[in-house]
Amino acid sequence: MSASKILVELFYDVVSPYSWIGFEVLCRYRNVWDIDLKLRPAFLGGVMHGSGNKPPGLVPNKFLYMTKDLQRLASYCKVPIQGPSNPFEAMFEKGSLSAMRFVTAVELHSPELTEQVSRELWRRIWSKDQDITTPESLQEAGEKAGLPADQLQRLLGLAISQEVKEKLKLVTQEALNHKAFGFPLIVAHVDGRPEIFFGSDRFELLAHLLGEKWLGPVPQETGSKL
């Protein structure tokens, strides 16, 4: 990392559509702002439990608002979100533990592919209404992300290893140490201290903190691989 670049960490879970928006916007700004973006796959369920938070979707009026809000935000940020046919089942019954263990295995052993693997998993649940919990689903996502067959099989095996389970717990605890209560969580390390931003709608404030300019959600059309 260049000494002049500011470290910006993104804690996320692919079960969270707002995390997908935050992820894509930060990936686009990685080469616009003078930052070193570090992806930190973590487990949202662990953060919710550890912080004592409750899913906003369990409040009927809030769920109705969030559904509309997500559509507007996705359109504005040009992220192809189309909610699953049964969002409660996808988010709360099936969850994302196996998916995030797989992403953690990729981050540990093939970090250059973490971005694309994460994106393919988001596409499955939040664009194509597909499963992200079974080994077959994870394999398909890995294939679409460009993982060679032998490497993919090794990573699928590692995803259920104690090493990966402990790493995911550790990163999730790091998010909780930053007082996380949900995702996405953005941590900008400025002047030796972490500055915390929750959500995918605080980029103007992040830019102000970094001494950078906010140029909208798509600063350059070539900056995102969507």
Automatic annotation (TrEMBL):
Superkingdom classification of source: Eukaryota
Active site per UniProt: S16
Class of enzymatic activity (EC top level): transferase
Family as reported in the entry's similarity comment: Belongs to the GST superfamily. Kappa family.
Annotated protein name in UniProt: Glutathione S-transferase kappa
Keywords carried by this UniProt record: Transferase
Entries under Pfam families matching the protein: DSBA
Catalytic activity: RX + glutathione = an S-substituted glutathione + a halide anion + H(+)
Transmembrane intervals: none
GO BP of this protein: glutathione metabolic process
GO MF terms, alphabetically ordered: glutathione peroxidase activity; glutathione transferase activity
GO cellular component: mitochondrion; peroxisome
EC number(s) from the headed UniProt entry: 2.5.1.18
InterPro entries: DSBA-like_thioredoxin_dom, GST_Kappa/NadH, GSTK, HCCAis_GSTk, Thioredoxin-like_sf
Occurrences of domain DSBA-like thioredoxin (ranges): 8-210
Alphabetized SUPFAM superfamilies for the sequence: Thioredoxin-like
Gene that this polypeptide is encoded by: GSTK1
